[in-house]
Amino acid sequence: MNLLEIRALEVRYGGIRAVKGIDMAVGEGELVCLIGANGAGKSSTLRAVSGLLPAAAGSVHYRGHDTAGTPAFKRARDGLVMVPEGRGVFPQLSVDENLDVGAYARKDREVAKEHDWVFELFPRLKERHSQAAGTLSGGEQQMLAIGRALMSRPKLLLLDEPSMGLAPIVVEKIFEVIRTINGAGVTILLVEQNARAALELSNRAYVMESGAIVMAGEARTLLHDPRVRAAYLGEAA
Q: How many Cα neighbours within 13 Å face the side chain of 77?
């Protein structure tokens, strides 16, 4: 069963078509990546799925329902949650307070359990639980942004460039946690410039160029495709 279906989606900025009628699907429980160069339209796609940008044409179906007219905050409350590029933590709030923001709309009694799970995934955050988020390193802020999203108990987690600007050892930790989150049953759509890591991590993949999907298939197959290796992995075709 597909948790997310994107049909003929277009995103425009004025007269510029950033996303040009793409089709995508993410099955329940999958980890799917969307790779491509800067400016390919990857982030615009995620922003349209999350409701942060309007679709100029086409549709986004989540859990079998057309999301047209559904604002971003309602999509988030229904489990469609995005971790944006640039992290977007609340710098004046503590780590604990940022995590509490993620659980703001929840009414259940499992919040404390999620809080403990985030600290299990990211022990560094537990060490800094009372520290202002703005004083954390870039890697710690990325951990916090992911942790805050998990506090809302997502069904579909959209991750936009989670490794951007981070040291290799931190990137390794982030991808390890993404695998763990998916293994716990959270469906993930990952936008990532680190094509090799994304393809090694994912079940399936889409390749985007100039606003269009140009390749799609099993991630391991695309990892060994000469065109992908030449264009995105820095290897000779």
A: 10
